[in-house]
Amino acid sequence: MKRRTLLASGAGAATLAMMGLPARAQDKTKVGFVFVGPIGDGGWTFEHNNGRLAVEAAFGDAVETVYAENVPEGPDAERVLTQMVLGGADLIFTTSFGYMESTMNVAAKFPDVKFEHATGYLRADNVSTYSARFYEGRAVQGHIAGNLTKSNKVGYIGSFPIPEVIRGINSAFIHARKVNPDVEFKIVWAFTWFDPAKEADAAKVLIEQGCDVILQHTDSTAPQAAAQAAGNVYTFGQASDMGEYAPMPRVSSIIDNWAPYYVERTQAVIDGTWTSVDTWDGIGRGMVGIGEISDAVPADVKASAEALRDSIASGAYHPFTGPLNKQDGSAWLADGETADDGTLAGLNFFVEGIDGDIPS
Amino acid sequence: MDFSSINPILLLASLMVAATPIILAAAGELVVERAGVLNLGVEGMMITGAITGFIATVTTGSPWIGFVAAAAGGAGLSLLFAFLTQILLSNQVATGLALTLFGLGLSALLGQGYNGIKAPEFPRIDIPVISEIPVLGPILFSHDPMVYVGIGIVAGIWYFLRYSRAGLVLRAVGENHEAAHALGYHVIRIRVLAIMFGGACAGLGGAYISLVRVPQWTDGMTAGAGWIALAIVVFASWRPWRLLIGAYLFGGVTVLQLNFQAAGIAIPVEYLAMSPYIATILVLVLMSAGRAPGSLGKIFHASR
pTM of the predicted model, to two decimals? Predict the structure, then answer.
């Protein structure tokens, strides 16, 4: 439906141009969004769409937004992006890692249009990247998970073996081990961002193998539903609060808050001050939020988790602080040393103590 | 590397759940193919059943009404296929493929606004007394009712094809539609009924995914289960009990590979991910001895 709307508006713009009327694009800034899942996924895409709605609310009639959902990562994204540009978009947010190539290709063809690619690392004069330090939230999750687990087995549903996901696993594991030296992680790779049937199966298997805390790096609420059906299993909301599953099984969450960034970047386009930047913000700047820790968590754990959150937010504590070894036992960070952003951005190994290999 | 963390009882129990959508869809397709029609639209009918069942369940609050609506949805879509192939004599392969694409699109349209909604729970039933039996009880006798419906449908199809007069007529139509026509049987009518049955079963299979296994609605959530069902019908040599074995095998290896991953067993994930397909094909090929119904996929018109 949305793609058709795009086509129609593209055709409309072409007609206007042919009739020799001024396009008057300056009057209204058009902001486009490309989503990997449905806006109703309750997770990743849902929060990006909230950011879009915040842009509409902040600028009112001065800005028009368009979006395309369920856009596959791959060549088809290029077609969707091109249509958006032809439809008059001035600024386009591509909200998944897999759109990187498509974004770069289309951006090269349309140097006057600004692009913002989420979680990627390729930039150009008209392409910015932005991401959030989700691993800061993972540290808080790991802290709570290590305290809550009675079986000492924590299940982790990974999506793809990319640095963003590996950072999350490492961060959660480090902080779970800190409070519970016996804790083990069981990791299942789903090889999808969003496939509720697969996510539900993975969660059920982890629960059957004795995990009583499930962390997920996939976008649907299916693992929450599986945990709820199982009873005494704790989960955390991923990307979005997933508050409909609180207070049990969902005991807290990582909330992606893209709204301030989207508003700021749209304002920059309106002002003509937009430049290509690389943004990586965490809890401190509000891009990563920790959802309310529910009453299912003991009060002392809740307090220490909140203290951890605040120390990360203030910059007093970095989740990757040495001494830390790599999985094979070789040294990574010395005592007191913190990981630099370059290493973190390309992180491709587990820390010591995690079982299992990263699929290549 | 810890095999002890895999609980064989829970593994076998979840195998039955993982296999159920495929059993339902494949059982329907088996009847369709035994009647001489090749309907490649199973995936499309499944996903349509998944969304019609989900909408009905959310609206009425009753999963049973949802499953009835899913069967109706699948059968309704299959009627389109029946009309095109049986009345307008279109190519069955092309029409079936088109039906899958159409079903995927239609379900995404119908599902607008149903993303992220929770469906009412479909309770598991513990059959009194026998669900208490150690080992066998949790594996066989404490599932949701649709697991048993699936097995019942397979048993019913087996009995119908083997022992009933109507089943014999259906097989005759599938083996040689001209001979069946010469004997005075209504080839088209029988085939349309078979196609509708196949659509209803596929719809039930789809609804099992959206109402029990996940349970929520997402675009394209059947994710290829319809194609698996089609392949299992062929590899099972069009025989109901082999179909059941094939589906359990597929479901079993699917669940087992996730268990292996979670247990940290050192087999690369890529091999684990392809294992269900390889295992199912290997076993069913090794035991296959049957042949396809004689008139499978051929167009019938009384004038020829």
Answer: 0.81
